[in-house]
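anyone seen this seq b4? input:
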Amino acid sequence: MQLTIDTQTDSYEQAIAAVEAAYGLNFAAVAGSWPDAPAAVPRPGPEGLSGEDLGLGWTERMLFDTVAAVVPGARAVLRRLVEVGGTASYEEVQDHFAVHPETPIDPKRIGGTLTSIRAVRRRVGPDNRSNLLERDDRRRIYWIEPALLEGLKRAFDLAEARPDLLRQEPADS
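predicted toks r here
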């Protein structure tokens, strides 16, 4: 028997279930019978995020749900804006992603990539129509309200700890 687990698409739980099924085991029952079995460490999840308003109606949970649901390119742009303090010029963003080693985005496609944020915002954002990512075409900048930066940092920390919760790029056929 050969077992294949795709770490990009299969969750941790799916991988464990596949190993258990392949070997005919139930790890929970086996571990429960060990006299000195280590305590199971709970994995972090979005249920631990705050539901309190951080500003503009956004909560930590809404921010995480947005980060998890947008396309990977839009997620990378949001992360970059958080890293640089919440504000960057169009050119800075384009230059950074034109040569990005993991998420290259053609400079002409940045705007289209970011439409994912607006689409997801309508589903998971607050009802007051406030945007997570703002843009000023006159000054040619993108910005995120400062009140939301700490919540976004926590959302990205959770996203890093639990990549299985994030939308992935569709597999090439």
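The longest strand covers residues 87-89. The radius of gyration is 20 Å. kinda curious what u guys think
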